[in-house]
Here is the input.
Amino acid sequence: MKEVFSWLKAIVVALVIAFVIRTFIFVPVIVEGESMMPTLQNADRMIVSKISNYVGELDRGDIIVFHATESKDYIKRVIAIPGDTLEYRDDTLYLNGEAVEEPYLEDFKAQMNGFPLTENFTLEQVTGETVVPEGSYFVMGDNRQNSKDSREIGFVPKEDVVGKTNFVFWPLGDFGTVQE
Here is the structure.
């Protein structure tokens, strides 16, 4: 009987530790679709760090997972943070009036044979706002022509953010951190 109790105690402790880790520290996620190509591939498996929700703020370029609907999470890149103005013109991102490089898009832009990867728009045209409001983020997929993102769904509220991700653990050929 002592041995059974010892095993039960070990199992309960393991379950509590697993619950705490999954609830507060990290969770695995599977990339669904092609909206983050070429950075992430369909079916990539990643680790999402929830620690970023408790410590510090998200920054431009971070890849995040957020609740897009009650039953669906999206993976996108933070393009603009609270207080930013935003414009895309001639396939170039302008934040607060300054051109910003997006090195993670260079390979994809080269494949476009001179056609723009990102169509021209301003923040006001797609959201009706002139700046990103407090507590919200403007996000986009790296595959700009095939991404349902803030251009369609609007701003992502901070409370909908599950966490930040940049580590692929499967398939093994893609194992490691991704470019931010």
In short: The radius of gyration is 19 Å. Helices lie at 2-25, 106-111, 123-127, 150-153. DSSP finds four helices and twelve strands in the chain.
